[in-house]
Design goal:
single chain; 310 residues; UDP-N-acetylmuramoyl-L-alanine:D-glutamate ligase
């Protein structure tokens, strides 16, 4: 039975400063706590899917440096198949500079490094190794041409494609007819739809505009408000557990990893989104990207009495 989740995307080392507020342009903020944490949207989603019970293969590119070696060790420790993990001898591993305020909101600047050298040929070669793929999960921190190669190859193999359009890039629009499911946050949905979102009804209108671009299912992640599912001309709102957010970094990545796991297990869509909302809610209660990603047993124990529990 095909149940493999193939994640194609970036690997970074996150350098995080926790402070009371995110600086305005020209402002220097003193104080705060610094730490490093492995990240990158692709790596976060691969680790999330693995911790939540998925059989995961990860296609990415790292530098021949200490950050690359640390990331490779983490993937192996998490039980992720790294047959598609390449090492670039000429470029460093990607890094992200992240500021997190006292409300848990963040501001991020990424230097892609080796991620920018994950080329079409790399993706094509790596995907040829996986004949048991069920879900492809891809984001936009790598070259658009490489994203296109991944989507095209997945569709040719009959693999369900989930696109997390982050960071948002309108050049992805011509590819949406090959995408089964797209998972923008509010900002990304507004950019793709050219429609402002202020509430559930306006989110539904934005989702319908995105569906009109060719994608079957639109899931807009709305932070503490949960997620909106739009398919055909109907929508459903899935609420999120109420938690105190400490750091929202990687919450969207956890959502996507959890969604892929549930769908690979052939759960109904609303049940899969319910599970993803709960996993993401748990992630924001901890600092860091991969450090905050929960394990499957944490979700089932915390939400033991919830409906639609996996």
């Amino acid at each position: 039975m095909k149940n493999r989740i193939i994640v194609v995307g970036s690997t970074n080392m996150d350098m995080v400063v926790k402070t009371d507020h995110i600086p305005k342009p020209g402002e220097t903020v003193l104080g705060g706590t610094f730490f490093m944490n492995p990240g990158g949207k692709g790596a976060n989603q691969a680790v999330a899917a693995a911790r939540l019970g998925g059989e995961v293969s990860f296609i990415s590119k790292i530098g021949q440096d200490i950050f690359g070696r640390q990331s490779s060790k983490i993937f192996n420790d998490e039980g992720i198949d790294v047959a598609g993990l390449y090492t670039d001898e000429n470029n460093p591993s990607g890094i992200a500079l992240i500021t997190v305020d006292d409300k848990g909101e963040n501001s991020i600047v990424v230097a892609p490094g080796a991620n920018a050298c994950l080329h079409e040929a790399d993706v094509n070669q790596a995907l040829s190794k996986f004949e048991d793929g069920k879900i492809l999960l891809v984001q936009l921190e790598i070259e658009i041409a490489s994203v296109q190669m991944a989507i095209q190859q997945a569709k040719a193999k009959g693999i369900t494609v989930i696109l997390n359009p982050a960071p948002v890039n309108k050049s992805i629009i011509p590819l949406l007819s090959m995408v089964d499911m797209i998972t923008p946050n509010i900002h990304e949905a507004e950019t793709l739809s050219n429609h402002r979102i202020t509430d559930l009804n306006s989110a539904f209108e934005a989702a319908k505009k995105i569906r009109a671009l060719g994608v079957d299912v639109v899931i807009i992640t709305m932070g503490e408000e949960g997620a909106l599912i739009c398919q055909a001309d109907s929508f459903e709102h899935v609420t999120a557990p109420k938690v105190t957010a400490i750091d929202t970094t990687a919450a969207g990545d956890v959502f996507n990893g959890a969604l892929a796991v549930a769908l690979a297990e052939e759960k109904e869509l609303i049940q899969a989104v319910n599970f993803a909302c709960r996993a993401a809610a748990m992630a924001v209660t901890k600092m860091g990207a991969q450090n905050s990603i929960p394990y499957r047993n944490e979700i089932t124990l915390t939400y033991l009495n919830e409906n639609n529990q996996l």
